[in-house]
Specification:
The protein is α+β, with helices and mostly antiparallel strands and 853 residues long. The protein has 25 helices and 31 strands. Strand 18 and strand 19 form a beta hairpin. Helix 6 packs across helix 7. Its EC number is 3.4.11.-.
Length: 853
Amino acid sequence: TTAVDASTTLPATTVPSDTTTGAGKEGTTASSNAPWLNDRLPLTLFPDHYTVTLRPVLEMDVATSTYYFHGSSSVRYLCNVSTDYVIMHSNNELTYNTPVTIKDNAGNDFPIESVNFVAINEYIVIKTTSPCEAGKMYTMFADDFTGELGDDLTGIYRSEYKNEAGVNRVIAISQMETTGARHTFPCFDEPAFKATFDFTLYHRSDQGFYAVANMPPIMFQTEMIDTVLWNSTTFDTTYVMSTYLLAVTVSDFLYEPATSTAGVQTYIYARPETIKNNEGVFAAEVTPALLDTIATHYDIPYTLPKSDQMAVADFGAGAMENWGLVLYRETLLLFDENISSVHDKYSITQVIGHELGHQWFGNLVTCAWWNEIWLNEGFASYVQYIAVDGVKPEYKPWEIFIIDDLQIALSADAYSNSHPLVHPEGRFSSITYSKGASFLRMVQSFLGETTFTGALKKYLNDQAFSTGTHDILFQHWIDEASANGLTFPYPLQNVFECWSLQMGYPLISVTRITPNTIRLTQEYFLIDPNDSPVDTPGSLTYKYQWYVPFTYRGVSEFGSTTITTEWMGQLTQPTNYFSATFTNSEDYILGNIKGNGFYRINYDLDMWGKLSLKLKDPSFKVQNRAQLVDDIFALSRSGRIDISLALDLATYMVNEDEYIPWQTFLDAMTYCEYMLGASPIYGDFSKYILDLVVPSIYADLGWDDSNTSDSALITRGEAIDAACTYGNQDCIDNAVMLFDQWRNDTTTIISSTYRTDVFCTAIREGGLAEWDFAWEQYLLSQNAQFQSSLRYGLSCSKDAWVLNRYLEYAMDPTKVRKQDIQNTFSYIARQEYGKYTAWAFAMNNWDRVINQY
């Protein structure tokens, strides 16, 4: 977080003295040098061990119409530097019903002078009558506190669902990243302040609930509290870990069991109805194998005795890597053979691989502060491909990397409002995830797998149960490269830094100078021609120039495994010239082989023309076909080349049958659609796309899913989506027919391959009756993936008043879950006839949207 000067931005820093009222109204103004004005905890105290008891009450308090949880906790901490202040995190929603106390390591009371709360930094500030003694342990006790068990998806919160009998069930779930733990109990809530934890969770004895947390249970007890019988579950002591990785749940879920070959137990927990419907089976099949694959790859066994996964109806993140108990949205863990799609199956495998990758990168070794969160998320985004490739290689994960991470990162990083990987605010963005993964993939490509992974094994072992920084990581790569006898033309530290400390990336221009000489130049690529660079600390050092491992093949080498690397210089050598020998004067090169490099390429017009013709050749690898399409349309958007050159190159798509290039092309067309949706030439634009889609993948793949490979199923979905969206009548007629069949008999199953497109097309071509029927089915469905298809289809209405009504429905959490409101807005806003409606609704209801969500 960015430091805040509270003495100047606030009228006064309120420090209340009443420990029983949380962040009360009265208090005094802190001095400007007070440690509680800093937004980072002081390094005077280090936590060692917590003991926490939580009792979520899953019935509403009638008097206040509020749900509550009750708790008690203690934290043993080391006095690192003598101080008379104990400062830790406590959100102002926590109410302390009894005074906090402190004891020294001998069990003697350590007198307290005052206890205050600083809301701006969410601190509890305890002033002791004398300073602690450096090197000694003390324990702070909070014996009775209360918090709201809200529905805000933060800390410990409540989730609700209707069971098979239609009865509403309230359960307790948690989400601690990044600051949820302080909403739950007083703690040192920063990633580097690791400790061990003992947790006890209570639940009523008469409601069929049980508790699951990070570690296995070790003790069960029963206790009468306020005339009600409660069960308690005490869990084994955790390993040393950060507060944001804690998971506490109380539910009535069932589970699907499995065990890895290494003997690690994994349960897939979910709503009873879904487990009975075998929706946890697929996750139970792949989880142990994914876990074993990662452990084997890094030669480091998984640390905990269990690795459970839980699907939750209300969950703000896609998934959360809590050590020993990963929590997911239902769409990303559960698979229904009758409803879920092949794409869902891949997504589930990929996301589980991502979260299990975190068990090493993030959990075992944690970023020292959120400014280095890419060390967690970038690595998990990279490791997920290793995991999927080891378990489901038929998914071709490293090809999918091109569209799921490389192209997403290139798009996000092409603006001056991007940010470097190492960033003070620690953003959870596509830069952090996808650029982080792309950077790692590029480093792997020039270090080689042996050096790259060998260094990571040592990094994980050396930093285990501690924290990492980019400098520590880079030094491991440098040392391993030296040990393996690798040499590079530039210092590796500078190579790594120019990519991690600067935002953006280079555009490499490739120009033929003589028949056998090609010139390479680099420039900072900004997609908006009116944009200009914004200096950051990293760019002041590296001047928006990069050390580029430019890989290429000559045309005679297409289809071979030959890759040549030319290192482009930086600072005093921004331009490289190199010579290559060609078979004749018509030869040319292809750069960035397999898309391993994080840069774009602009060829001279002659080379673009020759590459356009070569795209039809099967020797041209799928990753490079996709990346050429992505590069050329990005260049046209930036004004560096004429759009006609890009549209001409893309005419090769009529011969393309692979999903990755088609996804790339249609994503580029989506941007053009946004620009041209209301223009007089939209009809010509639609015809251009249909002339490529219909005679190729739409005609070849059709609508019949029988005897079709998984990759063909995904491509079929793309074909039907494009054909119906851009007005092919055969596609529209088929979609309307399938919708009508389902409307007349809801037991009819529309293929998950194109279900979303059928809903969208039928509602766009239909009227209020079609919309109302789909909305009714949305309310009746308990399957999150089916609901997601319906929510998208409902956004396709052409009637502004219907869309406004839909947005009002979305504001009601009893109709649309809070986690889904953003997607609902996005679905409507991406339609030409919906974007103005969504914008007007947001502007007219801004306070409502902000306050509620």
